Amino acid sequence: MLQTLIPLFVDALANAALIFFVAVGLTLVFSVLRILNVAHGSLYSIGAYVAASVGLWIVAAGLPAWLTFPALVLSAAFTALLFGPVIERTLIRWTYGKSEAVQVLVTFGLFLILEDLQRMVFGVQSIYADTPMALLGISEIGGIVYLNYQLALIGLAVAVLIGLRLFIRRSRTGKLLAAVVADREVSQAMGIDTNKMFMIAFTLGVLLAALGGAMATPTTGVAPGLGADTMVLAFAVAAIGGLGQVEGAAVASVIVAVAKVLAIYYAPALDAVAPYLVMLAVLLVRPYGLFGAGATRRI
Amino acid sequence: MRALPLILAAGLALLALAPLAAPYLQFVLTVAVAKGFAALGVALLLRAGLISLGHAMFFAVGAYAAAFLAQAVGINDFLLLLPFAVAVSALAGLLVGAFLVRYRAIFFAMLNLAVSMVAYALASKLYSITGGTDGLRIDVPTLMGMSLEKAQFDQALYYISLVLLAVVGWLVHRYLKSPLGQALAAVHTNEVRLEYLGVSAWSTLLAAYTISAALAGIGGAIAAVAIGHVLPEYAFWTESGHLVLTAVLGGIAGIAGPFVGSIFLELIHTVAVGYAAEAWNLIVGVALLAVIFFLPRGLFGLIESAAGVKDHRGETEL
Amino acid sequence: MTALLKAENLEVAFGGVKAADGVNLSIDEGEFVAIIGPNGSGKTTFLNLCTGYVRPVSGEVWLDGKPITAMAPRRIARKGIARAFQIPQLFTEHTVIENVMLALAAHRGIWQAFAPLDRPDYRAEAMALLDLLKLADHANAMAGALPEGLRKLADVTVAMALKPRLLLLDEPTSGVSALERFPLMDTLMTAMRAQGVTALFVEHDMEIVETYADRVVVWDSGSVMAEGKPSEVMKDPRVLKSVVGA
Questions:
Q1: Residues of C in contact with B174 (CB under 8 A)
Q2: Whether residue C217 sits in one domain with residue C192
Q3: Are the Cβ atoms of B281 and A106 closer than 8 angstroms?
Q4: Does B292 touch chain A (CB under 8 A)?
Q5: Would you say residue B314 lies in a domain?
Q6: Would you say residue B314 has pLDDT above 50?
Q7: Staple partner for A75: which of A50, A106, A238, C145, CB 3.0–4.6 Å?
Q8: Per-residue pLDDT for C172 more than 80?
Q9: Assigned domain for C181 exists
Q10: By residue range, what is the domain housing residue B267?
Q11: What is the pLDDT of residue C245?
Q12: CATH number, domain containing residue B301
């Protein structure tokens, strides 16, 4: 029993790590900009495509294989810098102060555009670039075999969570971001350049999405439709944790990943439904998510 | 102001005549009208300021209900399939809505999305009922007991759809002008005042949600028999996104808007498939952004301006 | 005779601050009662408690001898308590007369899905009310586009369209220029007498209170400090200290 369950749970945690990267990006953007970016999943898949293409190129060009590791992170950074500021400056900025319906629709339009752009640039074939995973190999502990890459993913997710916490609590930019989240109007009145903060937060969100995509390529590869699938999963995780809650996203991604594993184990027909059932169950009891708090209206 | 009913009547007449001039348009327009019903349902909720990212599920429920009755039960007459599909989707709307209309803004959007993804996943997995990822096929139904050739049935279906468009459109128009329909927009502008009038926002919204699900069900049933094949993809969240897009593209203020949006999109699609099939989403995405930026009242807003309508009181802005 | 409205030992706290600390108050049919008191003394909270917007921790509210404590606002509204707000609450994308007609429809039952809201009998009745409150000239203006003073009147008209037994008015003259206050109150009083409405109003302006209230209730730190005829209560040194700050 344990022999089969432990690898499953490591698998689940590695999955949780990948979901966490996208979901925390989504939730971060929401907390600062108060916008739910429906195109967030596309930035995940673009990050994946860029990373996979670069990885394949490194191998094909005969460059040292270890370069594929920094290439994953650099691909994500490249994607973030290429798309983050431009999208925020143009489309997203226009929707500030508009209704949710407009914000959802504008980002849905962006999603449609990005989906086709990906198809045009990267084609419709699935791409696998598993050099990083092959390089790291496996290790055997207590008779159970682990993929080292999966362990590394879990480690990276924990590092990102801690890093984000430190960034928001300690760094100057992070504190300014936190101030904008706490009270946008007061921050503005105090002279914080909120526009700059929005751009930073959005780009950071894209970076996290692209990082998730890049880190996913060695294990799952990338194919058309990945963006749409990832989007709903990230929605579900962010909503379970409470929109705008960084720790919430971390806890929720573990819950969702474990729910998926349990579903695979006990009710295989339900594995795809599991995240949404968890989301429904949580939101019906706590509409603002596990870590979220709602606002009351004064009259 | 008087010009508008004339334009609407002319538009309907044009739709009725279009297949005579270009027979291949009949199928395209049937599907467009079907999706238009679902988009109208989405538009109703948008009037209350609620954006549903899951309404394709009711379209799918209508389509599956029709397919199930026709194939599994063996009752395959369109005049029975349609009311059955509408009843099932309205019931689904009532049940789902009872939970969801408590929520607002982004939470409403996301919960609809979650429920629709559950529906999507179930449609893909429950092989014995839904045929899994293969979906369900529907043979050409009879019409009031008459067996028709496929071509004859398709023609009849098209004109039935147009009659439905006129009749149901008029009913929804009456509903929107009624106290219950006006209360819908009032939920959006001031829910506190509405409750203090003794009106339950919950039941006002639940009525609208059920009606919108029934409208999507009409569309689903028409699409199911027109296409002859029902798939889980009908319920995927991007389809729901397309319904919202269709409604906004056409304009959510009137009844005609969502249909104008749907027909416009399907026609452009037919043209674009030949030239730029890979760029279809791109084109639609850019069109959506252009409408949101430059035509907040949608395409139908253009028609209204041409007809000299200037009175936009009591309408919900996005 | 049972009081129209009776509140007994109402208690509620927000984050440690007692907004209602054992409130006892009763209002008889036909009375016109003013509530005064310093900011933060719990006057609006009392209106919120009476209309179900806030639930008390303990205590009871009765309307006509029947308990209405902690009922939802819409149920209390249907039982005959209507409310006008300090910040007017209107359907800003409807016209003024549509706001009133919606209230009339709500009073008769909102479940009418095929008859239009804008029908002759509703329009005539709404127009008569607007006439009474001197808003007839603005009937077709968008509610959101009215100036503040008129929005307050429209808010009261909407509340009166519910044909309430008791009307709660939260600072009807705030945000209205000093010159317009008395004419506004005259209009309100005339309208309320014509409709036979009992009213409870929160007010800051002592002159208004003395001119229009049958009885005044003085609030302090979440409870009733004094009550009685305006002329007598105003002589109470404690009241002068707390309210006028003298």
A1: 113-114, 116
A2: yes
A3: no
A4: yes
A5: no
A6: no
A7: A50
A8: yes
A9: yes
A10: 3-306
A11: 58
A12: 1.10.3470
In a domain, C67, yes or no: yes
Closest residue in B to C102 (Cα) is B179
B49, B192, B281: residue with CB nearest A99 = B49
Segments forming the whole domain that contains residue C120: 90-163
Q: Test A106 with B284 for CB contact under 8 angstroms.
A: no
Please say whether the beta carbons of A287 and B103 come within 8 A: yes
Co-location of C65 and C5 in the same domain: yes
Instruction: Confirm or reject contact between B53 and chain A (CB < 8 A).
Output: yes
Nearest residue on chain B to C76, alpha-carbon basis: B198
Decide if pLDDT at C165 tops 60.
yes
Interface contact A299, partner C, CB < 8 A: yes
Domain ranges of chain A: 21-224
User: How many domains in chain B?
Assistant: 1
- The model carries a pTM of 0.90
**Averaged pLDDT of chain A:** 87
CB pairs < 8 Å spanning A and B? 124
Chain B residue closest to C115 (CA)? B178
Distance from CA of C67 to the nearest CA of A (A): 24
SS (H, E, C) chain A: CHHHHHHHHHHHHHHHHHHHHHHHHHHHHHHHHCCCCCCHHHHHHHHHHHHHHHHHHHHHCCCCHHHHHHHHHHHHHHHHHHHHHHHHHHHHHHCCCCCHHHHHHHHHHHHHHHHHHHHHHHCCCCECCCHHHHHHCEEEECCEEEEHHHHHHHHHHHHHHHHHHHHHHHCHHHHHHHHHHHCHHHHHHCCCCHHHHHHHHHHHHHHHHHHHHHHHHHHHCECCCHHHHHHHHHHHHHHHHCCCCHHHHHHHHHHHHHHHHHHHHHCHHHCCCHHHHHHHHHHHHCCCCCCCCCCCCCC
Residue B193's pLDDT band (cuts 50, 70, 90): very high
Mark whether C31 and C62 lie in a shared domain.
yes
The ipTM value here is 0.90
The domain boundary residue, chosen from C163, C183, C202? C163
Q: Answer yes or no: is C85 within a domain.
A: no
CB contact under 8 Å between B198 and C74, yes or no, is yes
- Contact at CB, B46 and A101, closer than 8 angstroms: yes
**Does some domain include residue C33?**
yes
* Residue pairs spanning A and C at CB distance below 8 A: 6
**B318 part of a folded domain:** no
Q: Is residue B117 part of a domain?
A: yes
Q: What is the CATH number of the domain that holds C6?
A: 3.40.50.300
Q: Say how many domains are in chain C.
A: 2
Last residue of a domain, one of C163, C188, C221: C163
Residue of A nearest to C84 (CA): A299
Asked if the model's pLDDT at residue B168 lies above 90, the reply is: yes
